[in-house]
Predict the 3D structure of the following.
Amino acid sequence: MSQQPSAGILSIGSYTPQRVVTNDDLAKVVDTNDEWIFQRTGIRQRRYARPDEFTSDMAIEATKVALQRAELTPDKVDYILVATASPDNTFPNTACWVQKGLGMGDVPALDISTACSGFVYALELAASLVNTGSYKTVLCIGAEKLSAITNWTDRGSCILFADGAGAAIVTRTDGRGRIICSRNGARYDYDALNVAAGGSRQPASHETVEKNLHTIALKGRTVYKFAVQKFEEMAREACERAGIKPADVALVVPHQANVNIIESAMERVGIPMSRVVINMDRYGNTSAASIPIAFDEALKDGRIKRGDYILLEAFGGGLSWGYNLIQW
Ligand code: UT7
């Protein structure tokens, strides 16, 4: 694979809210238990934001860490991308809130709405913006307050979702954090995963609120099967395009939806779970934020060395999917 162009990840930061909610806590809200949740998902606990803490607040906290690690000030960012399925508002978008919160200048501010695949989409876009030479430093965020759009009467989904944020600074580097290749995709499937109301199809009404249509609805089994197949397919494709073998991948940082999905897919590809980052046991499924939070954790734990091949892969509502292969 060519060494050019050379957009790379300079730094990563993350933020998770303070409030920890265990499976036992959720068992007081819906008919469930710790054993079922852990065995079926790998989740033990998750974190929820405060009522007065919004998606952009978490995005800003994650960005501060990423900027500090990159030794950059906010004015050096010339493009803001925020991947989120739980924006502060329809508009101004969450990227505008981040711009305001960090006191940035009038730089472009764009939200990406591909649910849990948002961060891998954002990273591909960020790399493209940098590689064309149009922008120098792109702030690439995945941030969610899914607790604000969770259906608390649906035990099949409310146990999954959580809040948090992660941010990456993408710029031309000396080869560090190089984004070697990415692919994003989508295939319409409304029933698999949706938030039905609040848009132009079903504007907010008493009825949409009463029927819980402003919250996430999912067909878990449909998404599960789709995800296993896509994770396998994407891992193989990424390696093939980069001219490496799955055995050469030092670490996979997958979207933290369900440990069983990840285990099935990795077994098929032949990547042992010792080379896969799992943190949904502590953070649940934070959608677009899950990959940068897990990536940051792996870096902090010293699991990633210079030159390592790192595969990020995600799937989500749309249905959508995507991967980025990075050489650290
Ligand atoms: O990030 C993108 C969004 N994430 C996803 O779309 C997640 C993908 N899907 C999944 O992770 C899994 O499908 C779930 C975790 C959502 C569900 O696990 P499952 O193994 O597919 O369970 P299921 O939906 O097939 O349900 C099995 C049983 C059902 O009972 P019956 O009909 O067999 O008697 C459910 O009613 O488990 C029951 N069940 C529960 N029991 C206790 C469903 N949710 C719960 C629960 N606690 N929370």
User: Anything to note?
Assistant: The chain has two domains: 6-175, 180-327. The first strand starts at residue 7 and ends at 15. The CA atoms of residues 97 and 135 lie 20 Å apart. DSSP finds eleven helices and 13 strands in the chain.
